[in-house]
Amino acid sequence: MKKDKILISGNEAIAQGAIDAGCNFYAGYPITPQNEIIAYMSKHMADSGGVSIQAESELAAISMVYGASAAGARSMTSSSSPGISLKQEGISYIAGAQLPAVIVNIMRGGPGLGNIAPSQSDYFQATRGGGHGDYRLIVLAPASVQEAYELTRLSFDLADKYRIPVMILGDGILGQMMEPVELRPKTKTIPQKSWALSGCRGRKPNIVKSFFLREGALEEFNKTLQKNHQIISKNEIRFEEINLSGAKVVLVAYGTMARIAKSAVAKLSSNGKKVGLIRPISLWPFPKTAFNSKDKKLKYLTIEMSAGQMVEDVRLAVNGRNPVEFLGRSGGGVPTEEEIINKVKKLL
Amino acid sequence: MTERIIIAGSGGQGVMLLGKVLAETAMLEGKQVTYLPAYGPEVRGGTSHCMVTISDEEIGSPYISQADTLIILNNPSLEKFKGKLRNKGLLILNSSLAKSESSGKTCLCQFPFTDMAIKLGNIKVANMVALGCYLSARKTLKINDVLQVFKIMAPAGNLRILEINEQALAEGAGLNHG
């Protein structure tokens, strides 16, 4: 009998992961399907010595995170698709000010107010920065409740290490689903932030801003941002691969979709079909290096809960060497195992 | 072994709790498990459901498009979900509020869970009568482990709640499946 695990939802695992990573500031505004995050933070942050605020709006919440991060806090906000759109101004400012922050998007159907069903249609927004200006976020996509916990913890470390906002990108199923999770001891040492606005008695004042009016200053600053992006692109690629050797069709899927794809791979493999799976875990940087097959007959099949977004990154990575097919459903539809199997059989 | 269960009833009948007890018990037994609740605007009197998958192997989709078992507590839920039961699947049905003809396609266990719960003195434990009935028909998990989970989940200091749930589970488990 196992007693060291607890049964919690993806949303709760993200919240507990943040607390265990030493998050000491959270601000959010309720929206389905991520309400358990704000509820959990409201209930538990005070016990761990942190601050949790239900802000008056999404804009206020992200701006509070901007301020808290500038002051050196490990800070987080969370929302779902329409709310994340509202936060984009603040996210751009945080990126422009080179501040660490963790932003959680538990995606629902869009565009507009959409619906509350699971979706993956914010991939473009997440991986291209989302707001105005030349910037990126590190984007991590968990596929299980345990991984939601682990990647949330990791996201705080990456945010501090590279001084960049990190997004956890999940969908309604991941947020709502409960699975057994094993928690780890809390992070004890959090790196000192010499750049933080922590009071300048006895030292030179620090400046945190995203405003560079002098001629050439912004171009110069943006080069440092781009350089940081290059280092991250080299160091922080994460993905899982299954059954790639000898595969005739390789499925590409992330998050909840990857779990369904994995079931399809298992079923097809047990019938002797040569099918593999690449599951990007970091969506930015995108794991381009995973798409390096020398077999020209190999076909990739990207599967998404969207009308086709990640498939563009797959095509960029494959760069014309292999055919890249797509299977997707939009507006809250979830491609089923049977749909995947039927599509693969047509490709084989 | 993989068992996919959809539990559905009216909001207020405790279908979420039933699903959570199953999931907690599966976890206690060291099995893989996913629990996916409906998170829309479910209300008292409408339909509400959750999906529980229990397996010895890694679980793919937590969403169930074809169930091995349906546990159904009211008629609107039967209408909504009967199409999702696989051929020869198990249907546990609350005949106090819904009825179904037996056919060769399903393995049907229908008993008046709500009336049995009322006789026990608390209409709310109809869900646990249904759980007992399911576990004696399918034996996915051990009744003793469910009792352990009751002790963990029951509100502290209210022995009567624990007792009546234990009674309800035993009543359900004692039903004759023929």
Keywords:
heterodimer; A: 348 residues; Rossmann fold; 2 domains; seven-stranded mixed β-sheet; 19% strand; globular; B: 178 residues; Pyruvate-ferredoxin Oxidoreductase, domain 3; 6 strands; 38% helix
Summarize the structure.
The complex is a heterodimer of chains A (348) and B (178). In chain A, 38% of the residues lie in helices and 19% in strands.
Protein architecture, described:
The complex is a heterodimer of chains A (348) and B (178). Chain A has 348 residues and is of the alpha/beta class. Chain A folds into two domains: 6-235, Rossmann fold (3-Layer(aba) Sandwich), CATH 3.40.50.970; 240-347, Rossmann fold (3-Layer(aba) Sandwich). Chain A has helices spanning 10-20, 35-44, 58-70, 81-86, 88-96, 123-127, 145-162, 172-176, 217-235, 255-270, 310-318, 337-347, and strands at residues 6-9, 25-28, 51-54, 75-79, 101-107, 138-140, 165-171, 178-181, 239-242, 249-252, 275-280, 282-284, 299-304, 324-328. The longest helix of chain A is centred in the middle third of the chain and has 19 residues, at 217-235. A six-stranded mixed β-sheet of chain B has the order 2-3-1-4-5-6, sandwiched between helices. The model of chain B has no long low-confidence stretch (mean pLDDT 94). Chain B is an alpha/beta fold and 178 residues long. In chain B, helix 1 (15-28) packs across helix 5 and helix 5 runs antiparallel to helix 6. Chain B has six helices and six strands.
